[in-house]
Write a structure and sequence with these properties.
Blueprint (H helix, E strand, L loop, with lengths): L10 H10 L2 H28 L4 H8 L8
Amino acid sequence: MDPMKLYFDVRDIFRAPRLALSGKKIIIFMQANLIGYAVYLVLNYLGAVVNGMAFSDAWVVWTVSLFTNP
């Protein structure tokens, strides 16, 4: 396989992700990101329940996004 010719300018910006990551790696990273977010949600709701807040109240306040202030 011939080495890829790089120009070291703007043209390489669009070629770099294709060279660095395959579709399989991107899917694996996306799955890991979604699993991590799900674990984050569960642990934060668990923390609210342990702190004395009812789960239904926590759900009304934060719904699925825990990034908003109550």
